[in-house]
Amino acid sequence: MKTVKNMKKWFTSLTLLGFVLAVTFNWSLLVSSKKPSDEEVAYVDDKARHYSETGQERLLSLAPSAKVHQDITSLDEALLKIKNLEQRLKDIEFRIPKKYPEVNFLTFKDRKRILVTGGAGFVGSHLVDRLMMEGHEVIVVDNFFTGRKRNVEHWIGHENFELIHHDIVNPLYIEVDQIYHLASPASPPHYMYNPVKTIKTNTVGTINMLGLAKRVGARVLIASTSEVYGDPEVHPQTESYWGHVNPIGPRACYDESKRVSETLAYSYGKQENVAVRVARIFNTYGPRMHSNDGRVVSNFILQALTGQDITIYGSGKQTRSFQYVSDLVDGLIKLQNSNYSMPVNLGNPDEHTIEEFASIIHDMVGGKSHIIHKDAMEDDPQRRKPDITRANHVLGWQPLVPLQQGIKKTVEYFRRELMRSKHSERNLHDPVEAGNLRKALSNGVLTDV
């Protein structure tokens, strides 16, 4: 009996000893098989050294399986290596989730689906920024004649944003709550480039947007212009002034088609009960202006920055009133959401001669540019100043950004634009920064723009 018990003990002991030996043997094999190679040790050391020096992971280090010291014997090999590294960078960027500006959250009761025609343009893109930051769903429609995708690229892919490449001369069938109809070339070189197309955009395009508003019960804001006053004989211009326009002059394609768009809006309002708003927009400037749009602000700034003579057409005694783009966006949103349906002037009543404006930009930019005069443009308005009593009384709106601040911001934008040499060098206008400026000015706090 004792012999059997002793045998069982010996068998159990031998089994445990064999198990321990097997585990030890296998573990030693596992450890030896995972021993890093010299290349792998060098790779890890290189990454650790880079991280300790910069605090950032080195993305372009060689893979562990590659040779650390690889001689390049020809230019072709070097170019191929650079190409491979660039592709790896692109792959890494593709895997990194895109970050968007933090937008407000609205419930389904407060969130609107808003269509902005011409939303990739100068004014339209700033309006899109504001609507997106407020938390609305925004649909941009643009044919990219003067608009640019990069004006709204920071929203592409966001769940509240959609971009449609479409010409509003053709009908559009979507469901929306509000429409901001801004689509139209707005600078003389652009709207004179194809006068018939300009007329079609402001008439047929406006009919299509009013028809869409009628079908879906949306409210539509028509972006009209101070050009409906032509070369005014009344100063400043009130909304009750009918204007002084040459119907066959070089500006007529824009002036008269905008006047027709207002007529169409109120005809749809009376006949079809479409809720319409009409904004008569005066001279506006700011970041994202088209570099070759031929307007006073962009012309003067670019000429000063590049050392060219600042060109004034005519005597320079003609006057203009310039508003910063964020002030205009404020006015458009307030008008859209108001209960007022008659035309409203949106502009800055701070009036300057063209000569004064050229001197302001010259002094701010510096350089060796001289101010020169050339022959006046045909039908160029001699005086332009809005009466904004109605906007102030009905909307509680008035421009906030001082001229010096707005010009400074615009000069900085064009300076960065001139420094770009490739697409990867972005020149983005931060909507968060713009919102902070607006809040500061609303609270009466002047800050550097």
Structure, briefly:
By secondary structure, this protein is of the alpha/beta class. It has 13 helices and 13 strands. The model is unreliable at 27-35 and 55-69 (pLDDT under 50).
Task: Tell me what you see in this structure.
The protein is of the alpha/beta class and 449 residues long. It has a domain at 113-289 and 323-351 and 381-403: 3-Layer(aba) Sandwich (Rossmann fold), CATH 3.40.50.720. It has 13 helices and 13 strands. The chain has helices spanning 2-33, 38-54, 75-95, 122-134, 188-193, 195-216, 252-272, 296-305, 325-336, 354-365, 389-395, 403-419, 431-442; strands spanning 113-117, 137-142, 161-165, 178-181, 219-225, 276-281, 284-285, 310-313, 319-321, 323-324, 344-346, 351-353, 371-374. The strands form four sheets. The protein has a seven-stranded parallel β-sheet with strand order 3-2-1-4-5-6-11, with helices on both faces. The protein has a two-stranded parallel ribbon with strand order 7-10. Helix 4 (122-134) packs across helix 9 and helix 8 runs parallel beside helix 10 (354-365). The longest helix is centred in the first third of the chain and has 32 residues, at 2-33. It is globular, with a radius of gyration of 32 Å. Residues 27-35 and 55-69 have low confidence and may be disordered.
Key attributes of the depicted protein:
single chain, 449 residues, alpha/beta, Rossmann fold, 7-stranded parallel beta sheet, two-stranded parallel sheet, 13 helices, 45% helix, transmembrane helix
